[in-house]
Amino acid sequence: MKIAITGKGGVGKTTLAALLAQFYADAGRTVLAVDADPAPCLAAALGFPQDVRVRLRPIAEMADLIEERTGAKPGTIGGFFSLNPRVDDLPERFSAVHRGVRLLEMGAIEEGGAGCICPESALLKTLFAHLLFRQDDIIIFDMYAGVEHLGRATVDFVDGMLIVVEPTQRSLDTANRIRKLAADIGLTRLWLVSNKVQSAAESAFIAAAAPELPVLGALPYCSEVPEADRAGVSVYDAAPALRLVAEQITQRLTVVLKDTAK
Ligand SMILES: Nc1ncnc2c1ncn2[C@@H]1O[C@H](COP(=O)(O)OP(=O)(O)OP(=O)(O)O)[C@@H](O)[C@H]1O
Ligand SMILES: [Mg+2]
After folding, report:
1. CA-to-CA distance for 4 and 11, rounded, in angstroms?
2. Among residues 13, 42, 95, 134, which is most buried (max CB within 10 A)?
3. In the structure, how many helices (H) and strands (E) does the chain have?
4. Nearest bound ligand to CA 195?
């Protein structure tokens, strides 16, 4: 199962990715979590200890690797380089595992839009496509804020996408934009998860302005989340209320994925 998590910046994509990844890992599933943010945070949300985190670096920042695989230095525009570099060994080689979650830091993927044609984007796009083809048990993509990453490959190979919203107009505007873009490219397996809701009024605010999509779960605001961040511990351990909702989301995902023909 391949799930992408998207939504406006700061809504809680990484928090949700960490909760789902740890839930599946604890349930005995084989989990690959992919951090596609240029400033990776998923390792922290998963409570990866410092000695494991030092082994992680976003692929996008590995200049030597990019040159070795594509034949050109990052930033090269024009000139010759491979658009289809070898990537199959990268997920295992550059990831780290903690409590059953394998984490790969990619850096931003510009899979959908015009994007730049440069060695680093060639490597990342090829790696992203490779991940989408893999037959992993569970892959969770913590996507970069925004909608640029929505492209054909996402539509064809991701089982579904979760859009995270919080009770702000801007996050709902972004969710509506994502929904429209998704519809334009034929991605219909799209669900909402609300986050940081503190009152019935906030919940009603979301319901009134959110895209008309099935809601898979509502994560309440929990002071344990920023506390976990400060203490450097996993959000899954720190916030039992969120863990419960994450479990609910996984149950509903199983149902909706059965219902929606791929
Ligand atoms: N349910 C929650 N309760 C309280 N705080 C939360 C909750 N979810 C997320 N936060 C806080 O909101 C901030 C953003 O969360 P998170 O990093 O998960 O969002 P994001 O969408 O991944 O952000 P970015 O777009 O920067 O990657 C963090 O400071 C986090 O502690
Ligand atoms: Mg994030």
Report:
1. 15
2. 13
3. 12, 8
4. 1
| Beta-carbon count within 10 A of 168 CB | 17
Q: The whole model's pTM is what?
A: 0.93
At which residue do the structure tokens 């060639």 appear? 122
pLDDT at 147: 59
Q: What are the tens digits of pLDDT across the range 100-123?
A: 999 999 887 665 444 567 888 888
What is the distance between the alpha carbons of residues 42 and 44, in angstroms, rounded to a whole number? 5
> Does the Cβ of 226 fall within 6 Å of ligand 1?
yes
Quick one: which ligand is closest to 225's CA? 1
Question: Residue-wise over 37-71: b if at least 16 C-beta within 10 A, else e?
Answer: beebbbbbbbbbeeeebeebebbbebeebbbebbe
What's the CA-to-centroid distance between 107 and ligand 2, angstroms? 11
Q: Regarding predicted confidence, which is higher, 128 or 29? A: 29
Read off the tokens for 175: 């969710």
Let me know: does 86 contact 143? Beta carbons within 8 Å: no
pLDDT digit string, tens, across residues 65-102: 999 999 998 877 777 888 889 999 999 999 999 999 99
Q: What's the pLDDT band for 59 if we cut at 50, 70, 90? A: very high
Write down the pLDDT at residue 148.
Answer: 59
Which pLDDT score, from 0 to 100, does residue 171 have?
95
Tell me what pLDDT residue 117 has. 72
Three-state SS at 3 = strand
Who's near 104: CB < 8 A, 6+ residues apart?
32, 33, 34, 35, 59, 90, 91, 94, 95, 131
Burial of 199 per CB tally in 10 Å (0-12, 13-18, 19+)? exposed
Q: Evaluate: CB of 14 within 6 angstroms of ligand 1.
A: yes
